[in-house]
Amino acid sequence: MATKAAYYGTKPPTMLKGAASLDFPSIAAAGQHELTIAVTGAAVGDAVVLAPPAALTAGLIANARVTAPGTVTIRLANITAAAIDPAAATWGVRVIKAS
To answer: What's the whole-model pTM score?
Structure first.
């Protein structure tokens, strides 16, 4: 079994976290919308792990990325043929600092 150093180098990665209540507007069929969460210390190029709400509406797909220093952008895409108005919910993110 490889050691932690084999995966992380000399130290483990830094993990940052953030959460916010987001209220996405109605998203048109085959449309998308983006909202942001502030995460102090996040930098463009860092990896993001998204924690969507448990009750994410069927037909919606989410992804996240760091788009500016301290800003994680969540994109919600509607893959259905009808508009979807998702309920306001708490979204969480973890940012893994690039080495």
So the answer is: 0.86
Q: Are 69 and 29 in contact (CB under 8 A)?
A: no
Convert the pLDDT of each residue in 23-75 to its tens digit. 999 999 999 999 999 999 999 999 999 999 998 999 999 999 999 999 999 99
66: its two tokens = 């760091």
Measuring CA to CA, how many Å separate 73 from each of 3, 12, 20, 50?
34, 25, 12, 10
The β-bridge partners of 48 are: 95
Instruction: Say if residues 46 and 97 touch (Cβ distance below 8 Å).
Output: yes
Question: Please, are residues 45 and 98 in contact by the beta-carbon 8 Å criterion?
Answer: yes
CA distances from 87 to 29, 47, 74 (A): 17, 27, 15
